[in-house]
Write a structure and sequence with these properties.
By secondary structure, the protein is of the alpha/beta class. The protein has 13 helices and twelve strands. Helix 12 runs antiparallel to helix 13 (about 375-390). The relative contact order is 0.12. The chain binds pyridoxal-5'-phosphate.
Length: about 400
């Protein structure tokens, strides 16, 4: 049993995919395989194992049976992609860039991109002779004017995980493909459940599995996927030589997290939308950045390209002195202030000046990013209400 049947719907895939009790004395879950060395029965067995490529288990760095189960489950969720598990989400983004770009190439990166992706471009890629240029996230088909001869890749993140612009990926991909450039999509917000990046035109998709896949704030994990065999072979080979591999405990936690991901996403997404709509009515809030709200400028695009929303969104507060805004976030008791998101717990983070090259962020627009966890939504609303009230006090 348990070769995932692609006709299964996502909840069934998440429950039954990527595990085979018959291989593990009947135990439901694939155990954590802790291993570096793999012992071969005889010398003659080594070459055929290596020749199996991704399917062979030859050395821990290229993955254990649990890694293969995790990768298989992500692949079937994405409708037949081939996946490479990585040490974290950043590795799932750096791997395709390092594997597919070379000196003299240029990469177009959305200005709304995750901060560390920008750091990768500036600190590593630039030093290797790859030029990153940032484009306005809402550029759509207008990207064609930026596709100069050296551009080999376009990086999208939709919605931006800080400022929540939804990108017209089909329009961007059409122009990029006409130019011969690859489209890499960071689909951490959408997850394989809420956005089918391949249907929109992606060639390569990266996920910070650290977020909803792991879902419990207890492991760093990433996964990068493609439906193109040659790209996959290249990603797999470079993962092995740059050492991007995921750890055994993390793979186990990633597989375990996936079992409940749909349920968690639904609960957290519903609570987030409820609170986002309520926050829109609060006098201290200038704007709510949640693409599933009809007021969001990209709501129509979101409706076209997404089938759901996760628990992460932003609010822009009315201009207020910095000390008052920090007091607002410090007043929250159920929202921890910390990087990352996608776990079972609510989080808050204050950003004064998101880094921007192509699309300046307005000054005096305090941006607060909220991640809604699995707490009772009324407790979260009460906590937000009392913290918003502190903004009224000088
Ligand atoms: C968190 C995050 C990453 C990086 O993931 P790590 O596992 O922390 O390396 C990449 N992209 C997005 C959109 C993220 O939110």
């Amino acid at each position: 049993m348990n070769k995932p049947d692609p006709s299964w719907r996502p909840a069934t895939l998440l429950s039954h995919g990527g595990r085979d009790p018959a291989k593990h004395s009947g135990l439901v879950n694939t155990p954590a395989y802790r291993g570096s060395t793999v012992i071969f029965p005889e010398h003659a067995a080594i070459a055929p194992t290596i020749a199996k490529g991704a399917a062979g288990i030859a050395y821990g760095r290229s993955g254990t049976p649990a890694t293969k189960d995790f990768e298989a489950l992500v692949g079937v969720l994405e409708g037949g992609s081939m996946a490479v598990a990585t040490a974290c989400g950043v590795a799932a983004l750096s791997l395709p860039m390092l594997a597919l770009l070379k000196a003299g190439d240029a990469v177009l990166v959305t200005d709304s991109v995750y901060g560390n992706t920008r750091d990768l471009c500036e600190t590593v890629l630039r030093g290797l002779g790859v030029e990153a240029r940032y484009y306005p996230p809402r550029i759509g088909a207008g990207i064609k004017d930026l596709l100069t001869p050296g551009v080999r890749m376009v990086v999208c993140e939709s919605p931006g995980s800080l400022t929540f612009e939804v990108q017209d990926i089909p329009a961007i991909a059409k122009a990029a493909h006409a130019h011969g450039a690859l489209v890499l999509v960071d689909n951490t917000w959408g997850t394989p459940l809420y956005m089918d990046a391949y249907a929109l035109g992606a060639d390569i998709v990266s996920h910070a599995a650290t977020k909803y896949m792991v879902g419990h704030a207890d492991a760093l994990l990433g996964v990068v996927t493609t439906k193109d065999q040659a790209l996959f072979d290249r990603l797999r080979a470079v993962a092995n030589c740059v050492g991007a591999c995921a750890g055994s405990e993390e793979i186990y936690l990633g597989l375990r997290g996936l079992r409940t991901m749909k349920t968690r996403l639904e609960a957290q997404g519903a609570a987030a939308l409820d609170l986002a709509a309520w926050l829109e009515q609060q006098p201290q809030v200038a704007q709510v950045l949640h693409p599933a709200l009809p007021s969001h400028p990209d709501h129509t695009l979101w409706q076209r390209d997404f089938s759901g929303a996760c628990g992460l969104f932003g609010i822009v507060l009315n201009p207020a002195p910095h000390s008052r805004v920090t007091r607002f976030v410090d007043s929250l008791t159920l929202f921890g202030q910390g990087f990352s998101w996608g776990g079972f717990e609510s989080l808050v983070m204050l950003y004064r000046n998101p880094t921007r090259d192509a699309t300046p962020w307005p000054k005096d627009a305090p941006l607060v990013r909220l991640h809604i966890g699995l707490e009772d939504v009324e407790d979260l609303r009460a906590d937000l209400a009392q913290a918003l009230a502190t903004l009224e006090v000088s």
